[in-house]
Specification:
Elements: H1 6-18, H2 34-58, H3 64-71, H4 74-105, H5 113-130, H6 132-160, H7 177-187, H8 208-237, H9 239-243, H10 248-254, E1 257-258, E2 262-263, H11 266-296, H12 304-315, H13 321-334, H14 337-359
């Protein structure tokens, strides 16, 4: 059985949580209180994380695929597992499309998006064939560089003198309601609630006693990166400009200029986006394959190409990035998919585990 160390787990959590999140300004509907939305969502996401860890702690050697079939029964469990496979594949598709559209907006404005995304998908397929252990080791290899580059991007606006702290004021001008509303409806589910995917991978950790501590530490590190990048956008651009910006962090970084020498950090930002999106898309994709492996009792690598092809084809369906984003809002806001897969089903699973444990 493949195994991953606690350091590899922590690295993957950090990169996954950051992922494609800096592409967007979380909580911007709350205007200058967007950073408070992130803080609130982080705390609510931590509660969800404790739920996921409680589930894993009761069955440390089993992943979500096995837990669903064990506690919901063969038929219902396999049906729920199939739904999770679709959910994981859908999330992978969204990240692949983000990768393609980001490339068109930045470095390849006239490039064919189909070619860009097939390159991305090919890299993910290659990573899957190498195995879980190798993929997590890759995350461990690049995490220090990613965090260092984000630290540079956070410090540089202060050095260049383009920050305006007054843009964070007044705090809670319209009360706490907009902050809570945005947190509960949107930001708690993405990215913080997406930690549910690690229920597919925690069973591979070889140091089970350190798993929870490592997970929580990594969660806080990645959350701080998300929070600080959010704040940087607010104090550099202001909420009004952010609302009409396609990629706020990229626009913020373009304003950095120090002694007419250090400027044009665009390439660094894009590199960070690529690394985050690749890690996130591949982990969702790998989770979907592990679910199918449990359903059909076949090595997950055999599903790599057919599932990868489906993810690639569906990522081509949106006609533009705007339609891609609108479809995502429909899935999350109208169908409430995130709430079902991130909160409701795990909560039911934990309740059933508690009841069966009490009966025994």
């Amino acid at each position: 059985m493949e195994q991953i160390s606690k350091y590899q787990l922590g690295s993957m959590i950090i990169l996954f949580q950051i992922g494609s999140t800096p592409l967007f300004e979380l909580g911007i509907k709350a205007n200058q209180d967007a950073w408070l939305v992130v803080v609130t969502s982080m705390l609510l996401g931590l509660m969800l994380l404790f739920l996921f860890l409680a589930i894993q702690r009761r069955e440390p050697e089993k992943n979500m695929s096995q837990l669903l079939t064990q506690y919901f029964g063969s038929f219902a469990g396999k049906f729920l597992l199939l739904l999770y496979v679709v959910f994981f594949a859908y999330e992978a598709m969204r990240n692949v499309r983000d990768f393609g559209d980001l490339s068109l907006f930045t470095i390849l404005p006239h490039g064919p998006i189909s070619v860009i995304m097939i390159i991305m998908m090919s890299l993910s397929i290659y990573s899957v064939y190498k195995g879980i252990e190798v993929f997590f080791r890759f995350a461990e290899f690049i995490v220090i560089g990613v965090l260092l580059f984000y630290l540079i991007l956070i410090i540089m606006p202060f050095i260049s003198g383009i920050v305006h702290l007054d843009r964070l004021l007044p705090i809670m001008e319209n009360g706490i309601q907009p902050v809570l509303k945005n947190s509960l409806l949107h930001e708690v589910w993405m990215p913080f609630g997406q930690m549910v995917v690690f229920l597919m991978f925690w069973s591979y950790v070889n140091e089970k006693k350190e798993m929870a501590k490592t997970t929580v530490k990594a969660f806080f590190v990645s959350s701080m990166v998300v929070l600080l990048s959010n704040i940087i956008n607010l104090i550099v651009l202001g909420p009004e400009l952010i609302k009409i910006s396609t990629v706020p962090l990229l626009q913020s970084v373009q304003l950095i200029q120090i002694a007419e020498i250090f400027e044009r950090f665009d390439a660094l930002v894009i590199l960070l986006f690529y690394a985050g999106i690749f890690i996130k898309a591949t982990l969702w994709y790998l989770a979907a394959l592990l679910g199918l492996s449990q359903l059909f009792r076949i090595d997950y690598r055999r599903f790599a190409i057919p599932v990868g092809a489906i993810i690639y084809i569906t990522s081509l369906l949106p006609t533009s990035w705007q339609s891609h984003l609108e479809f995502g809002h429909f899935i999350t806001d109208q169908l409430h998919i995130n709430k079902v897969f991130i909160a409701i089903i795990p909560a039911l699973l934990y309740m059933i585990m508690m009841i069966k444990s009490y009966k025994k």
